[in-house]
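Running low. Got one?
___
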Amino acid sequence: MTFEISDFADIPDGKYVATLAGVTVKKGGFGGNDYRSWEWLVEVPGENGAEAEIVPLTQLTSVNTGPQSKSFKQLTALLGEAPKAGQSIEAPTGKRVVLMITHNDKRFPTVQDVGPYIDPQATLPGIPR
């Protein structure tokens, strides 16, 4: 039997603009808990002014959506405001955020934190340009 080891693009530690490509709920194996799989498209700047490379990154979280959960924090960044209790929200695919990416103990890139993305050309009420 031959094993084909798939290639993956490494992402250096840092802050990156990313777009949510999708979110799915998956069944935990062997009686484990269900979990969410977040699919991100991370914009990794090219070297020496080269065009940014779009690198896919999968993040796994619990299905919890309480105020202390990763899902809640990510939805807040994606929506621009905190979700309300009892609210039902479709996955905001296509929305952009800023991901803080670090490497886990197995040296794979992982999402450490998520913040809102503000378009540099956007104007905010009450803030002169």
Remarks:
- Residues 14-116 form a domain with the OB fold (Dihydrolipoamide Acetyltransferase, E2P) fold (CATH 2.40.50).
